[in-house]
Amino acid sequence: MDTYIYSADMYCSSCGEKIRQDIDAERKEKGLPPIDRDDDTQTDSDDYPKGPYSDGGGESDSPQHCGSCDEFLENPLTGDGVAYVAESIIDAIGKCRWDSIAITVWAEYYELDTIQALKEAMEYVR
Question: Would you state the pLDDT for residue 103?
Fold first, then answer.
């Protein structure tokens, strides 16, 4: 999934583009020139959403979610990230939290939805 980075957070395509449109409209209203979206040197990610970036923003130690709508960004995980998700799934099962995002979303996406897959992921922790 394509993502945007803005103000120290990550956003899905829809939210990132909406933020861009809002900033562009505000600049136009103030009589400021438009931002050249193709010129990364013109602004910083604190001032204007950068992107789009593919693969959910890239590899991370945890699953990433949109800073606005909380949509799962489907990013790849490091080994530590896989272990984190496996631990989160096991914790949710232990607490009978069947509605946990670890069970309802991450387990299937990261293919940790079987006992064998969880066992293999947890071997990374050891």
Answer: 95
Return the ∠ at Cα 15 (arms to 46 and 53), rounded to 5°.
65
State the sign of the Cα–Cα–Cα–Cα dihedral 23, 25, 28, 29: negative
Residue segments in the chain with a per-residue pLDDT below the cut of 70: 124-126
Rounded CA-CA distance 102/106 in Å is 5
Contact criterion met (CB below 8 Å) for 3 and 57: yes
Calpha distance 79→41 (Å, rounded): 33
In this structure, are strands 3-6 and 9-12 parallel, antiparallel, or unpaired? Answer: antiparallel
Locate the domains of the chain by residue range: 3-57, 79-122
pTM of the model: 0.88
CA–CA dist 121, 126 (Å, integer): 10
Whether 122 and 87 have beta carbons less than 8 Å apart is answered as yes
Q: What is the dihedral of CA 86, 55, 19, 24, to 10 degrees?
A: 170
